[in-house]
């Protein structure tokens, strides 16, 4: 049944959607957020953090911590958050630290200038120096941060609770550990871990009405997944997967007791990146398949899928929806688009 659910009910909205480019640069726009309705903060993966004013069309470049740009790494996610009447910028990035190449999280107070005083509030504990599968997306839920970290190309560590590889983490807003995390008292387990058994999750979103956390991740050759994330659960990689080795053979099984099945999976791969939840739907950016996918959820099940923006023929990296119901998405070609599709309903 899982396979049927994932492969049917796929429609196209290409004829009805006319996104407008509002920003253009020459690098991968890995993530973006809004400081105000007229100011976009965004990351270029090669290491620039910029603010673009939609009215003046001017761009300023902010300072960032020292990062390591290599392979799939660089400057990654960005979030703007107001906390207790102070404005903060959060960024994730790849960093060389203590002999390892890791995924880190920094926070800086922002006060309308180009200079930000950064504080690195979390560094993932990893084994190895692979330049692949860093993750890493953030979502803010109440007074907590959920952060995704990829397996770094070392799949066995996704099942190892002594590393952060292949995990979704839960942190306080200052990067410290919540005392009700599931592995806080488990010997040889890292206390930041919320869920494990992930490959390379680059999307995470929260349904605040129903209090449901979702994440998507890249499979290998097929087996991309959308998961409903719950406290302390194991999502199977690399023991259960619908993907195969790039040279052909199956990697693992499709079922194993004690490991969670995905809500949906895709064979062949669609390469899911950033996601956002809005009004019963998940909007998922996709890279290799070059489209945005609307996924309708009912009773925690996928009931319909719709492809959007296929005619752009571009790798879509991230997506956001503002309170005015306007949909925005960024691309690896260095553009951010806006669509009034939702606000016109």
Task: Give the topology.
Elements: H1 2-7, E1 10-12, E2 20-24, E3 29-36, E4 39-44, E5 48-53, E6 59-62, E7 75-83, E8 86-97, E9 100-109, E10 117-123, E11 138-141, E12 144-149, E13 167-172, E14 193-196, E15 200-207, E16 212-218, E17 224-229, E18 264-266, E19 272-278, E20 281-286, E21 291-298, E22 301-308, E23 316-321, E24 327-331, E25 335-339
Parallel strand pairs: 1-22
Antiparallel strand pairs: 2-25, 3-4, 4-5, 5-6, 7-8, 8-9, 9-10, 11-12, 12-13, 13-14, 15-16, 16-17, 17-18, 19-20, 20-21, 21-22, 23-24, 24-25
What this model shows, in words?
With 345 residues, the chain is mostly beta strands. The protein has one domain (2-339): TolB, C-terminal domain (Neuraminidase), CATH 2.120.10. Helices cover 2% and strands 46% of the residues. It contains one helix and 25 strands. It has one helix at 2-7, and strands spanning 10-12, 20-24, 29-36, 39-44, 48-53, 59-62, 75-83, 86-97, 100-109, 117-123, 138-141, 144-149, 167-172, 193-196, 200-207, 212-218, 224-229, 264-266, 272-278, 281-286, 291-298, 301-308, 316-321, 327-331, 335-339. The strands form six sheets. The chain has a five-stranded mixed sheet. A hairpin with a 2-residue loop joins strand 7 (75-83) and strand 8. The two termini are 33 Å apart. The model is unreliable at 1-8 (pLDDT under 50).
Distance between the termini: 33 Å
Structurally, the number of domains stands at 1
Shape: globular
Q: By CATH's scheme, which homologous superfamily applies?
A: TolB, C-terminal domain
Give the fraction of residues assigned to helices: under 10%
Rg estimate, integer Å? 19 Å
* CATH fold-level label: Neuraminidase
CATH class: Mainly Beta
Number of strands: 25
What is the CATH architecture descriptor?
A: 6 Propeller
Structural class: mainly beta
Q: Which regions have little confidence, pLDDT < 50, spanning 5+ residues?
A: 1-8
The string of secondary-structure elements, in order, is: HEEEEEEEEEEEEEEEEEEEEEEEEE
Largest sheet: 5 strands, mixed
């Amino acid at each position: 049944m899982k396979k049927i659910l994932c492969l049917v009910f796929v429609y196209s909205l290409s004829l009805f959607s006319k996104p407008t480019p509002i920003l253009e640069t020459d690098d991968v726009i890995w993530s973006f957020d809004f400081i105000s309705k007229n100011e976009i903060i965004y990351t270029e993966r090669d290491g620039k953090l910029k603010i673009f004013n939609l009215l003046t069309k001017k761009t300023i470049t902010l300072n960032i911590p020292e990062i390591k740009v290599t392979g799939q790494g660089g400057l990654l996610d960005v979030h703007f958050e107001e906390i207790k009447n102070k404005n903060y910028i959060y960024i994730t990035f790849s960093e060389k630290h203590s002999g390892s190449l890791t995924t880190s999280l920094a926070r800086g107070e922002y006060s309308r200038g180009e200079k930000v005083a950064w504080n690195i509030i979390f560094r993932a504990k990893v084994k190895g120096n692979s330049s692949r599968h860093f993750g890493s997306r953030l979502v803010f839920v109440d007074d907590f941060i959920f952060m995704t970290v990829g397996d770094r190309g070392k799949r066995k560590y996704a099942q190892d609770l002594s590393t952060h590889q292949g995990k979704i983490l839960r942190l306080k807003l200052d990067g410290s550990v919540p005392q009700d995390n599931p592995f806080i008292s488990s010997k040889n387990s890292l206390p930041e871990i919320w869920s494990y058994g992930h490959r390379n999750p680059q999307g995470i979103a929260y349904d605040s009405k129903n209090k449901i956390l979702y994440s998507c991740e890249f499979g290998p050759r097929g087996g991309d997944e959308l998961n409903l994330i719950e406290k302390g659960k194991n999502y199977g990689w690399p023991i259960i997967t619908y993907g195969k080795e790039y040279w052909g053979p199956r990697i693992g099984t499709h079922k194993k007791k004690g490991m969670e099945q995905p809500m949906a999976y895709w064979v062949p791969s669609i390469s899911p990146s950033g996601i956002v939840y809005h009004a019963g739907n998940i909007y998922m950016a996709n890279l290799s398949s070059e489209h945005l996918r609307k996924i309708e959820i009912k009773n925690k099940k996928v009931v319909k899928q719709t492809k959007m923006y296929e005619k752009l023929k571009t790798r879509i990296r991230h997506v956001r929806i503002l309170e005015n119901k306007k949909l925005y998405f960024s691309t690896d070609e260095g553009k951010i688009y806006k669509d009034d599709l939702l606000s016109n309903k």
